Each structure stands twice: as structure tokens, then as C-alpha cells.
Amino acid sequence: MEKKVLIKFLNGTADAAERSKVMQWLEKDGSREKFDRLLLDRWKNVGEGEDDERDYEALLNKIHARILRPSRSIRPNPWVRYLRVAASALLLMASAYFLKQSAEYTEPVPVISERIIERSTSDGEKLQLTLPDDSKVTLNANSTLSFSSHYGLKERVVRLSGEAFFEVAKDPEKPFRVETDGHMTRALGTKFNTYARSGNFAVALTEGKVAVQGAQTAIELQPGELARSSGSTTISVGPFDMDQVIGWKENTLVFDRKPLTTILEDLERWYGVEMAVDPGLNVNRRVIGTFRNKNLNDVLTGLGFSLGFAFDIDNNTVTISKNRL
């Protein structure tokens, strides 16, 4: 008898002709021993170890005892009963084995490593970002914003160097935090501007409420208030002019008694140029003026007329010199 036919018979996949063929074969001498060996081989392919061998011997003895046990009632062909018992036992063993394997196997949970995402602007460049929680950020020139790739999963934290305007999506369970050197600003759903350059720090609130934490001071701002710190642990609070502080976002430059030297540094960032200033020019003079949507040439023309200097633009280099009139 072909082994594959016997296996199909045990698995219940044999057709009618194959089943009849097996039944006829089992009537022959020696067929029982061969069948026992086949059952043992199948058992060993399912289980392992001494306990499995003892289980097999016990099962085989029970099968044989059941076949040989006398009965007062009319019973079917003992080989049919034998095969049914053997096939059921094999199926049970296979099911138990695979259930055991399934119980021991645990689907591995993929671990996504955390990384830092960084967005930067160069001189003369602005950038608008939408964070994963739909909070919006407008990044001013020469600024850097960084945050974790896990942002929003447990907390909402960004780190800023430079200047940015934030429109924070509301999430009371996960306060939005902006970290800068020496300061931290905490908000829920609000709009505010943060400035952090060269030891100078400022937060201007336009909507909602924020808390500002310094090294030794913590204050809470209301809309229209600005918190400022300059190289010290003290944070001062006062009102601010919207155009002057946040005008850059709408391409509006407002100078309120600002020294020319600071204005020229701002222009370098905003327009992406390098200033070469005549040493004889008084750069400490203060300026009052507003420029809306003006190009660099228009801004310098207005400043030069008020302060008495000439300028020359050569690609990305601007030369500022005293007026020789």
C-alpha cells in the first residue's frame, strides 16, 4: 500500500476509491504492523520527547485493547473502528501541537525609534509649517524649530532658536510647550510670538493665555501683553505694538526708536544680504519708521534719506557709506 494513500486516509482527504483500497489492504496479513509504524512516524512528526513516546504507547495500547475487547452486541468491522480512533487521535495531537505553538508565539510589536525633526530658515527666508496636531508655525528668517518624531503622542514640545509665530491647536490634555535657552512657554490653544536670539528673549501674546517660565520667575500673560528678558533671570511684562512685534509675519517692518545698527542686522536676516558699513557712519542714531511690503532698495532709500547715507547693492552685498554732499 502506498504511504501517501494511507496518509490521505488518516487526514480524511482520500476519495472513495482510495478509501476502498485501504479497507481491502487492511484485511491482508502484516498490514496492521505497517499501519502501526506509519502512525508512530506521524506521531513523532507532531510531538517531541519521552513524554510523547509514553503517550503514544498508551494510545496504541488503548487502540489495540479496544479492537480486541469482546462485545455482546453486533459491531462493525474492527479495522474501521481502529482507523477512526487512530485518525481522531492524530487529529487531536496535531491540533494540540499547533495550539501550543500559537500560544507560545507572540506577534512582535514594531518599535519606531524616536528622531529629532528640524526645520530651518536662512537669511531672507520665511517658512510656514503645520505640525501633526494641526498647530501652525510661521518661522522667521535665520531661525530653527525642532521637535520629536513622536510629537503629539504623549506631549507637544518644540524647541526654538530665532523667531516664530505660533497658532496652537487646542488640546487641554497636552499643553503646547516652546523651549528656548533658559525659558519655556506653555500654552493650550492660543496665538503668540516668541523671540530668542543672542541671550534676548520675548513672548508676545495675541490670543488665549500662556505661562512663561524663566530660571527663577514664572508669569502668566494675557492677550496684548509681552514678556521680555535680556540676559538676566528677571522677566518684565508690558503692552506691545502688534505691527512692531509681529509685523514681520505680514512683511511689515516697524522701527520705533530702534538704533540703525540693530536695523541693519535685521535687514541682513530679512533680505538675506551682507552689510558693509562705513566706519565713519554713526550707526547709533535711532529710527522711527514703517515699511509695508517694501523691497530692500525702497527700505534703504527711505533710511538713507532720513539718516544721510548712501548705499550700493551688488548681488548679496550692500555697502553703506556716509553721504558726501
UniProtKB/TrEMBL annotation:
PANTHER family membership: PERIPLASMIC SIGNAL SENSOR AND SIGMA FACTOR ACTIVATOR FECR-RELATED, PROTEIN FECR
Residue ranges occupied by any FecR protein domain in the UniProt entry: 120-210
Transmembrane domains' residue ranges: none
Pfam families the record matches: FecR, FecR_C
Source organism: Cyclobacterium lianum
Protein FecR C-terminal domain segment(s): 253-320
Example of a GO MF term: sigma factor antagonist activity
Coiled-coil region(s): none
Signal peptide bounds: none
Superkingdom in the source lineage: Bacteria
Protein's UniProt name: FecR family protein
